[in-house]
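Try this one yourself first.
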C-alpha cells in the first residue's frame, strides 16, 4: 500500500487506508462477507469505523467467525458472555440485534437464494456508481432500510444501510481525485 496515493479524505490512518484500498466499495456477492459487514455496520452505529475495524478480529472471534447460523442460535448465556468481552463493543441492544439480524439474514437468504440476490434486487442486478457526492443516504438506502426494518432487522436505518452499501460495493462512492474513483464498476 502506497502512502502517496490520493485517497478519499476519510482514509487517514494506515488501518483505514488499507481498508479503503483493498475492501471498501469493492463489489461482492459473497454472502459471508455481506453478513460480516452487516454485523459490523450495525455495531458501528454511533461510533467511528476506525474503532470497529480495530476490533474486527475480536468481533470475528467473539461472533463465531461471523457465522449467521451460529449467531442466530445465541441465547441469553451467549449474550451475557459477549457483554463481558472487552475486545468488542459491549452494548446489550447491539448484541441482541446481532442475533435478531442473523435470523432475518437467514430468512432473506432462504427467500432470495442468497443475501446478494436480495441486495441486488433493488438495483436491477448492478452496482451503482455514485461518484463521491457528499451524502449519507440515498433513495436506495432508504428503500433497503425500510425493507430490512419491515423484516425485523435492527440498527438498519438509512445512514447505516448507505454506509453498508458503500462498504460492500453495491454503491461505489470514491471521491473525485481518489485513485479508486470510478475504478470498480458492475456487481
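Now uncover the answer:
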Amino acid at each position: 500500500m502506497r502512502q502517496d496515493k490520493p485517497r478519499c479524505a476519510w482514509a487517514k490512518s494506515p488501518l483505514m487506508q488499507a481498508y479503503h484500498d483493498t475492501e471498501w466499495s469493492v463489489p461482492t456477492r459473497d454472502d459471508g462477507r455481506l453478513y460480516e459487514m452487516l454485523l459490523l455496520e450495525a455495531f458501528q452505529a454511533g461510533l467511528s469505523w476506525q474503532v470497529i475495524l480495530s476490533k474486527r478480529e475480536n468481533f470475528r472471534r467473539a461472533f463465531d467467525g461471523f457465522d449467521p447460523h451460529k449467531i442466530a442460535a445465541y441465547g441469553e448465556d451467549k449474550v451475557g458472555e459477549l457483554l463481558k468481552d472487552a475486545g468488542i463493543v459491549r452494548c446489550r441492544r447491539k448484541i441482541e440485534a446481532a442475533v435478531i439480524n442473523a435470523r432475518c439474514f437467514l430468512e432473506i437468504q432462504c427467500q432470495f437464494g442468497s443475501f446478494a440476490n436480495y441486495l441486488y434486487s433493488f438495483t436491477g442486478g448492478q452496482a451503482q456508481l455514485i461518484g463521491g457526492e457528499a451524502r449519507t443516504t440515498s433513495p436506495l438506502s432508504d428503500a433497503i432500510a425500510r425493507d430490512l426494518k419491515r423484516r425485523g432487522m435492527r440498527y438498519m436505518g438509512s445512514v447505516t444501510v448507505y454506509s453498508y452499501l458503500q462498504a460492500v460495493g453495491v454503491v461505489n462512492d470514491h471521491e473525485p481525485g481518489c485513485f479508486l474513483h470510478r475504478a470498480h464498476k458492475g456487481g
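Discussion: The longest helix spans residues 92-112. The radius of gyration is 16 Å.
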